[in-house]
């Protein structure tokens, strides 16, 4: 997580980037009713209220407590409620019980945000020496990126909890981040890449996560990668030809997942007498055939590729070819497990828990989705999820 | 559930009793914040919002739809959300998922109540023939009693969900229904009852539930029953002498329950370095030794009785002796399983599901608690819970 | 469990009754292959090997260790393996893990039986004073009855484990205890009983269990009880008319049991294209319409009775009327919960765990089945099982 | 799974290799009692009887049914009982229920083996054309390797089931495959490897599995790998310095695994008052400090490496350096996920299910263990297990 940032003034970093991102979080939540903030319908999701509190707690704990002279916590018990997996930062509420806590109220959580933001802004008024200033900027950058990740999670978790309600409420009928795409069919081409050694990983002095480092060489065979993502029409064919009923395309664990959960279509697809529909943040609308398939698990992505006689690209193939294709609107599953790059080092202290501890049993996704905040991702960015999950906005790009 | 009600005018029944009880429900909820209404922290509890909606749905479904000419439902989808176990009245949300539903909002649920109440009041404006009027009054009486049961559940569920929050919030610092009792030690006496045939069950023309009928004869041996409930001091002794560590006092299933859940004290007891405390709707306060023990499971009640070399009374002993002792402030576990009386008949239709379907694996409690609405219980009233439950305000009266 | 036994000589008691019963256990197991002895296909069943070892351990622990001078245990580790719920008698293997233990081998367990039997027989050679002799006879009687209970469990567990095998092996093609009954249809009559006080419970100086005491008076209303058990034909009608699909006949928990386990017919009924068949210890044979229905859970028995507009008798009604009807060939579910009689006392020590600790969440069955050893049951005998269980040979006698 | 085998005569292949391996399986089982063959103490293990039947079923199904004219199955129902994950080859008994089946008996399973072996030998008597002969030899080679894998599983499963027995029986006091190593401390060195492109994967015309292909190039950075495996003494230090109590060394899922299962030492380590002991197929013996650590999960291996400030090698590093170090006596965890090599192709038909379907959520192990049959493994061999498993004989080789 070390990076060389440009010579950016603290005041500019705070006002033009950090507080702007902080405000974006509030904007995302604007259509929510108070009751919506409390829901946790699965252990992999969190209540909106928790995201709001947790991101504030992050700035308070890792920045204000270190840099703000005689900082007074907003509420000393909030750490217990809003800590997540930072075990080194103290006890916490069990991950699957966050939806059982009604207090602090939404109003109090917004007051907490406000309190933290005001104190962040005041940081410019203190004398901070160069070495500390560098560290402060570094931590602000982390906090900003951390907040952006929770913005994406907010969309994911809100969508999932609204879907769970049998009344299927509409979040925001004008939501730009989850709208149907009425475009025509796209011409799909195979992009050819040559065998050889490629540079993989982040370089340059912009921010990146520790898991994108060290930059290193990877040897790739000849391969071809599709210029476009798989569409709803493509996947509807997989369904109608019995893709979910035939084990030969599935991993052993994928097949078990299909059987035990009676999976018959992607998450958010709803079968009505008059065809397939899709639940979105704008409400329910018909499946558009040329729209790109989204909310797909790795198991489904892999089975689909196998059914086509093709495969998913590795994350290295994806990164090597990324300059040659148009970026999709969803995260793209790769066939790479989430593992450390050569030379990967875990940072000291609580922030060191950020990435390395998740490097088991997860698969890498590349790209970015419409839920991803502007400027958050990049070609070397490594997103990761367990293979059975699909509440993230994930799609499929094929390779061979 | 048949009863001869006194000649009560419909308008009086509605305004002086039904709508008064309806309003009491709102009063109970007054200290809640919007977020509090959504919580369901266990599958045996329900969100406050659900109780409010369900009791309104009950009047709408079983009364307004039948008696209000051309009645227009407030929202046709509410039946799905607010139905409970009335399987004959249509599909419903799974019992353990009620806390995952944020919409309708609390405000909408209050509007629903208001809508239902206004229509109930208007029932007086229609011409209703005698036979229908009789049935209407009967159903209103059921609705009123049903609402009172949910008032008690509201207190139980609110207390349980607040306890679950690690911040242990205070519901109402002046709550009368869950306050410590600073009384002096009570003199406890054994009341002797003679062997013979006793009348058991409800008679007279006041309302009662179907499970209190038919009135019938029961033969009882000589027995003695305590004049008072067991106190905190009594039970603290059981704990300190290893009552929770010694299987000999426990039922086989009770012992398993203790082991698997690491039970070491009654629900709501909190051990601090300076002694035992108790969580209440007023907040946390020290255990008062002369206060009556409450929130005890049947397993604990039975183990305690066995440890004392005594036993719990049967529900028949309790009822036969009930005129001789001062009523306690909690429900009192009996050693009777919840089973039908001779001649018990299940009513036709959805209301018939009310009681009979629960007559398995539950134990009877008699009396009433501070959570019970004034006038709801009586000496023949049969409350019932599974033996492992203790979120109801239950205590112990011993017999021998 | 106190009783006045007739003046029976120790040698006679041992040779003519105890060792005879001990030998019957071996006869029951004769058709088993070594592999069959190890199976435990459910946590409520036990391996045949365990039954053989446990019954021997019972005699060794409660009799030989007390009465045989300087008795030397066959193997000091067997107590750990063959103890059941006698928590006071030391640690034990978890109930649901008994099938995971291959050693001691079947051969060793038979050697253990032989060792114990030989030492039991030698008890006649020692000088035992009157008071001890009385206690010894009492314990032998308990051991004998305990062994008989395990004989019935052996049949139940063997049948259940053979059914579990997809190859549906035949236990014994000539087994008398589970053969089809080719009798003609029986004339069924209603036996009328008059309201009044009846004596319930065991009296006389023959052996009985503690749960049959004290003899006490019970007041019964007028009732009628069927002269015969429900037949397969009766129940087939219940099935074909949708009995398993209609919640109105079921307890709430019974309905959940039906749903969660997809129950569509009694245990051991197998639907083939050409009709219903039944798995028995003799193998698979067609359902005979006039044969008495067996292996039915309490939930099913109760739902069937409700569907007929009738009910199950209480255990008191059953006992009061038992002289008036022909005994069935199966245990008969009653609508009584298994609870203590007035004056019930738990014996001191490990044997006191025998019955009282199970007096929760179980329903009483009366009568006896073809799996029950000759002479083991009587009209006051109280068998009991959880309402969802049906691997015992249980049937239905109706009342109204 | 394609390979160029040397010009080996069928008769020689059958008698000198296939039937020899088949016989080795029987030798492994020789110390077992009949009862031992039935046990399945975990869903990841299988009964010995099942391994014996399954390996015979494999030869019968994929070879005899294709090549033996008018082959008559030993028993047509065995396919149901002895199939494993070959979904294309028909229905099968659920994986976690294999221990619930006592028939066919052990004797019958041995007769089945004998029947299959006799028919295999007779294959030499038939006229088989060249192309078929090639395929037959290929399938025999697969069957042989498949049987060897089950030989290793037999040792693993037997050890695990004997450990589960509270009596801790001895399998074979002279077992060579699980004996303590009394050697002196080994000098450990760091072997240095240079950055560059390395060839990975199998080449040559000897047998290999499909997952070892295609041979391809991998770019490796400079790295160092230990000349020897981690010892018991090394790991005892990790324990005594609180390695199992400190989350910082663990993956998030590893830490959860430690917490939920109360892991405090490697599988088979037993703490006694006088120190650590180890359960082996020879019985229980003291932990020898210089003996190589074995039966370790990936989570533990990774946490140990992190605690040392080191790491596990990737499978590519391991293979590239494998010529430079002495092979250990256990499988060695790598930090590589089990994923397909470039150009990996799944074979058509049931045999195609062999490897590819497991390529998710598993980590690669390299080397071989004392449980591995002579000649079964090679430097390109890729073994794989879920990260929480440790009943395989796995150890740790460190890298940096």
The low-confidence parts of chain A are none
- Largest sheet entry of chain A: 4 strands, mixed
- Mean pLDDT across all residues of chain A, rounded? 93
Gyration radius from CA atoms of chain A, angstroms: 22 Å
Number of helices of chain A: 9
**Oligomer kind:** homotetramer
For the termini of chain A, the CA-CA separation is: 34 Å
Strand order across the largest sheet of chain A: 10-9-8-11
Largest interface: A-D, 40 and 40 residues
The dominant shape of chain A is globular
Overall number of strands of chain A: 11
Helix content of chain A: 25-40%
The sequence of SSEs of chain A as H and E is HHHHHEEEEHHEEEHHEEEE
Helix/sheet category of chain A = alpha+beta
Q: Quote the beta fraction of chain A.
A: 5-15%
Quick synopsis:
Four copies of one chain form a homotetramer. The first copy, chain A, is of the alpha+beta class and 400 residues long.
Describe this structure in words.
The structure is a homotetramer of 400-residue chains. Chain A has a 4-stranded mixed β-sheet. In chain A, strands 5-6-7 form a 3-stranded antiparallel β-sheet, with no helix packed on it. The first copy, chain A, has a two-stranded antiparallel ribbon with strand order 1-4. In chain A, helix 1 packs parallel to helix 5 (130-164) and helix 2 runs parallel beside helix 4. The first copy, chain A, has helices spanning 10-29, 48-67, 78-82, 106-122, 130-164, 232-240, 252-261, 298-307, 315-321; strands at residues 190-193, 196-200, 216-220, 223-226, 269-272, 275-280, 283-286, 331-337, 363-367, 383-385, 394-395. Chain A is built from 9 helices and 11 strands. The longest helix of chain A has 35 residues, at 130-164. Chain A is α+β, with helices and mostly antiparallel strands and 400 residues long. Chain A is 33% helix and 12% strand. In chain A, a hairpin with a 2-residue loop joins strand 6 and strand 7 (283-286). Chains A and D meet through strand 3, helix 7, helix 8 and strand 8 of A and strand 3, helix 7, helix 8 and strand 8 of D.
């Amino acid at each position: 997580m070390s990076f060389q940032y440009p010579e950016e003034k603290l005041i500019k970093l705070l006002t033009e980037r950090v507080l702007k991102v902080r405000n974006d979080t509030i904007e995302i939540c604007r259509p929510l009713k108070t009751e919506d903030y409390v829901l946790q319908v699965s252990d992999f999701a969190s209540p909106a209220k928790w995201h709001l509190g947790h991101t504030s707690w992050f700035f308070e704990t890792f920045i204000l407590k270190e840099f703000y002279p005689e900082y007074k916590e907003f509420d000393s018990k909030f750490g217990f409620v809003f800590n997540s997996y930072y075990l080194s930062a103290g006890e916490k509420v069990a991950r699957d019980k966050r939806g059982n806590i009604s207090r602090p109220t939404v109003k109090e959580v917004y007051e907490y945000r406000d309190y933290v933001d005001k104190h962040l802004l005041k940081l410019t008024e203190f004398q901070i020496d160069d070495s500390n200033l560098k560290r402060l900027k570094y931590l602000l950058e982390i906090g900003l990126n951390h907040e952006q990740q929770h913005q994406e999670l907010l969309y994911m978790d809100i969508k999932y909890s609204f879907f769970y309600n049998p009344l299927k409420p509409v979040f925001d009928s004008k939501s730009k981040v989850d709208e149907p795409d009425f475009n025509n069919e796209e011409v799909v081409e195979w992009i050819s890449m040559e065998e050889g050694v490629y540079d993989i990983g982040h370089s340059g002095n912009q921010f990146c996560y520790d898991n994108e480092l060290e930059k290193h060489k990877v040897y790739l065979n000849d391969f071809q990668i599709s210029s476009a993502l798989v569409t709803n029409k493509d996947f509807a064919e997989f369904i109608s030809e019995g893709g979910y009923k035939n084990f030969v395309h599935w991993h052993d664990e994928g097949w078990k997942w299909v059987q035990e959960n009676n999976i018959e279509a992607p998450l958010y697809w709803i079968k009505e007498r008059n065809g397939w529909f899709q639940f979105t943040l704008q409400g329910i609308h018909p499946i558009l055939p040329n729209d790109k398939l989204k909310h797909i698990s790795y198991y489904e992505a892999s089975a689909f590729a196998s059914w086509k006689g093709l495969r998913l690209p590795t994350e290295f193939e994806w990164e090597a070819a990324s300059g040659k294709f148009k970026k999709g609107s969803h995260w793209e599953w790769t066939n790479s497990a989430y593992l450390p790059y050569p030379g990967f080092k875990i940072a000291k202290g609580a922030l060191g828990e950020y990435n390395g501890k998740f490097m088991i049993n997860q698969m890498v996704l590349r790209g970015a989705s419409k839920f991803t905040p502007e400027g958050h991702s990049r070609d070397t960015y490594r997103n990761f999820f367990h293979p059975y999950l699909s509440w993230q906005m994930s799609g499929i790009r094929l390779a061979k």
